[in-house]
Amino acid sequence: MSLYFRDKFFSSGSTGIMNETGQSAGWVNLKSAFSTSLEVYDANDTKMCEAKFRFFSMKWEVSDSYGAPLGVLRPRMSFMNKRFEYDAGERGFYLIESPAFSKEYVIMNRREETIASFAQTSGWMQSGAYCLWNETRQLGDYELIAVIMGVNEIRKRQSSS
Question: Is the dihedral of CA 19, 25, 27, 28 positive or negative?
Fold first, then answer.
């Protein structure tokens, strides 16, 4: 099943999550344009997870609805490719990468097996819109949405510096 969601230009307010048939599958609360944090809710308005940058850091922390850590996303040094790593503790370590000028990303486990992928579907001068294809149960859809939004936020910070 595919899920579609997007960022907003000023990164504040809420934005919907839809499945491939256009039905609501939840929403993302982007909280405020002045703080980089978010909450992800399912279709029943239940908070599934939250995410934010660590203080003065490029590390994006993802937590469950009670604030317990799920994982940490960080950029990896790469010459041309866009690379990130997501450490989900006991649930695994994942590499996220995309060729230099591509808008498609793959998420791989330690054995370099693709467990999920996502693509930026928006065009130039639009806010980030994404399509997620999750093929694993190790990482939930809503957790992956928080991770993808973290990739988006890290890329924004990298391009502004």
Answer: negative
CA distances 41 to 70, 119, 124, Å, are 16, 21, 28
List the alpha helices (DSSP H) in the chain: 141-160
Q: Residues with Cβ < 8 Å from 73, sequence gap 6 or more?
A: 59, 60, 61, 62, 84, 85, 86, 96, 147, 150, 151, 154
Which has more pLDDT, 45 or 155? 45
d(CA 21, CA 38): 25
DSSP state for residue 91 in the 8-state scheme: G
- The backbone region for 61, taken as left when phi is positive above 0, alpha when psi lies in -120 to 50, beta otherwise, is beta
**pLDDT tens-digit profile of 4-40?**
998 775 567 899 999 999 999 999 998 766 667 999 9
The residues with which 69 forms a beta bridge, in sequence order, are 63
How far, rounded to the nearest angstrom, does the alpha carbon of residue 110 sit from its chain's CA centroid? Answer: 19
Residue 54 DSSP class? P
Q: What is the DSSP letter of 89?
A: G
> Encoding tokens for residue 127?
């806010």
User: Contact, 106 vs 112, CB < 8 A?
Assistant: no
Q: Which residue do the tokens 């859809």 mark?
A: 141
